[in-house]
Amino acid sequence: MLKSKPFWYFMMLGALAGWAFSILGIAKPFKNEKLRKLWASILCTWALGHPFEIFMSSRIGKKMGLSFFRTATKTLLFGFTWWLPLKLGVIKK
Questions:
Q1: Which candidate among 1, 3, 13, 37 keeps its CA 20 to 30 Å from the CA of 81?
Q2: Considering only CA atoms, which of 75, 77, 71 is closest in space to residue 20?
Q3: Per-residue pLDDT at 82 exceeds 80
Q4: Rounded Cα gap, residues 75 and 88, in angstroms
């Protein structure tokens, strides 16, 4: 499964859906308490996790000949669903 390109692209779609969910929660706060808690946990995890991942992914991006800007942007958008398959050789630049 980890060597499957469709799997990783599906995971990347999930990351984008998570961003859409986060932005929606900012634009129009959720009234449902469970949704609000889910939104807060996702937003906090991503706000803390994605910048930390930049440190990890920057080495991988540099090794692959990618600019820091491109690596950081894709890491912020997709997180590990982008840099891990890149590291594993499943996806290319």
A1: 37
A2: 77
A3: yes
A4: 15
Q: What is the dihedral of CA 50, 51, 52, 55, to 10 degrees?
A: 110
| Residue among 53, 59, 56 nearest 77 (CA) | 53
pTM of the complete model: 0.86
CB 57 within 8 A of CB 81: no
Q: Please answer whether residues 75 and 53 qualify as being in contact, where contact means their C-beta atoms are separated by less than 8 angstroms.
A: yes
- In angstroms, the CA 17 to CA 30 distance is 16
Tokens for 84, please give them.
Answer: 């891990």
